[in-house]
Amino acid sequence: MSSASTMRRVSLRNLAAHKVRLVLTVLSVVLGTSFVAGSIIFTGTISTAFDNIFDKVALGVDTRLSPAESRASGVDTAVLDRLEAEKSQLGISKIVPRYSATVTIAKADGTALQTGGAPSVGTAFTPPAEALSTTESMLEPGGRAPVGTGEIALNASAAKEAGLSVGSTTTLVVSRGAATPMKVTVVGIVDLPQDTGGYVNVQVQESVARQLFSADDRPAFIEMAAVPGVSATTLTDRVQAAFGDDYKAQTGAQVRQEEKDRVNQFLDVFNYILLAFAAIGLIVGTFIIYNTFAMIIAQRVKELALLRAIGAGRGQITRSVLLEAFVVGLFGGLVGLGVGVGLAAILKAVTTSTSGLPSAPLELTPSAVIACMGVGIVVTMISAYAPARRAGQVSPVEAMRESATDGASSLRRRTLAGAILGVIGVAVIGIGTSGQGAKYASTVGGGALLMIIAVVLFAPALSRPLVGALGRVLGAPFGKIGRLARTNAVRNPRRTAATAFALTLGLMLVAVVGTFGSSLKGSIDTAINKNLSADLVLATSDQGALPTSVVTAASKAQGVGTAVSFRIVAAKVDGQAVSGISPTGDLGAVTPYEMLDGASKSIPSDGMIVSEKTSKSKGWKRGQVLTFTGYDGATVPVTVSGIYKDSQILDPWQMGEGAYEKLVPAGYRSDLLVLVKAAPGESVDALRTELTAATKDFLTVQVEDRAQFVGQASSQIDQMLAVLYGMLGLALVIAVLGIINTLALSVIERKREIGMLRAIGMARAQVRRTIYVESVLIAIFGAVLGVILGSGIGIALVRTFRDLGITTAVLPYGLIGITLVAAAFVGVLAALWPAVRAARTNPLEAITDA
Q1: ABC3 transporter permease C-terminal domain location, by residue (predicted)?
Q2: What is the 8-class DSSP label of residue 600?
């Protein structure tokens, strides 16, 4: 038998002989790789589900004609007339104009049907004889086509969710234009090929759709079928040539692919987020695996020395350790793949039930398997490489004579390198905080990376004084037990630092996210309380648009002094896309602002006022005439009548109503929100009751006071943070496992020492308390480093986002306090099993153990 084969057998038997060690090491690989597998499987599954839906979109369509500019209000009616006139010349057999708009429909109980993020659209019902596909207008038995303004057909899944059926009466609200809520009757249930959970499709007669869903009778796009003998590509080329660069002609296949690409682009972003957290888990896991293998090598030094003495070469020793790492990585990847499938199933179940995403069977793709296995093996091999090399370089004689210890010189070199990198990192972060924007934020990110590496290198030197100081304070109530725990915690600074760093990295990320979130909430709170004088705010519960009729209804409510709606303006100036606000009514009555250049506070109907920051950045001055070009081609000259002091609420500019109405067709106008000021002497509570009654039929309108409006904005941030904290919990779980792993191996390493203590009278409970205190000291050390590092990086990042309105850096003191307390709890939790194991050490067996 060859020596290589012998070494392989030794490696495999060593793994089999230490099952607990194997399981703990594998777990650190599993938690990282499972997120890699889960994210790829989940996004692949959702992508397949959308592909299945979009494969059924535009069925029977040979050519679709739509505006080249996606924000345009639709296709000019003259284009539709020309298509009808040149129908035979172009080779068209059928032409179907499509009208659509976002709508909300009431359920049987009168509340709004929530889609969970899926589209809720109104369209025109196409009679079967005019439809391009036989599956387009499939009415369920007992229903019929809608006729007139009071009738609708509803897709089957929405009807079921809303509790509506043929004959049901409900309310329909169009989310743009001046349309008021309509009482409608369901006269048909439509089976749609692309029907999926959450999707709502309300169909009305075409003449009604033109009135409700279009701007100046313009269809959103026009779909066509070719006559026999003319291919879809040929017809599309002819239509494109006929209508030039203002319009985009696509085949049905191109439309379906475009929809798929748009969704996949969103899913890619979601996948990158999941993979980023997987990377965090893997980075934390890397330190644990490294620490584990380093301790294993230290404990097996005599075994390895014996192998060297009987002829094993350095390379063979190194390869034997790497083989163990390969087996751990392979096994961890396999288990991680299985856990990833479960994780993807959970994500799918949650998202399909709460967000309106479609459902499909889980897709276990080869790429998910390869990525999971590859990442598990590579990360483990890299983590184990340094300990493996160290194992191969130990001299047999030295190993037999001495135990492996940290060399002071290497620790000095490491500490010096960490200090240098730390100084450079602080300098880079300082440069990043000197400006604003993505470039400076990236600079801060680079400095943060240097600081993390610096902490890795410098932490062993920090561990002795900091853990020692913590031990004197926290260990004091435990007397000699506390002093022994402190000694154990500081005796191997490399191990202590490596164990604590897993927690440091996790809590650093928590502190960064917490600081950013607290600062964002604090800035919003300050901005609203400082710049908003309105008593009440009208907005939608789903953060959608309000029809312009909401402000009309609100203005008629008893007790209203001023009602101002805010409408988004999207246009181009000098070929560059710009966006701002067009308020209706007396802006100063609901949100005070200070004019710096220009005497009048009122906004001229055909003019605009500009914030100080925008004036400087774009060079717009008082008296300058700007030409705004709407996405439908309308050009409107607008005079800058004044410059106002920067306001977070009113940034970047405010346009007069007259100019806005020239730019945006009536059917496409909508409000972002409505601010209401009570008339003098009127009760705000009474006014709120009146406004609630006046806007009840709009279904999604919420009437909030300023505190509730601030709370609503904060709750959205909290929801985002909750998701991030939940995902960062992965790193903390791995950190706990790291502490468990290290303590368990430390107990094995100190078996004879623990046996001696037991032999001279230490009780089992005292042994357990020693391990508990030691673990708590390590955990708090890691937590303190993480909180300090994360808070500093978080404050620096906040400073680079001042231009986005995050003006105040706020430390999450509550989170920091909870984190430090939780770290102590984590220390106790992580020590439970190692402490019990240590307490069960048999004194005689431990003392006689060679």
Answers
A1: 276-395, 727-843
A2: -
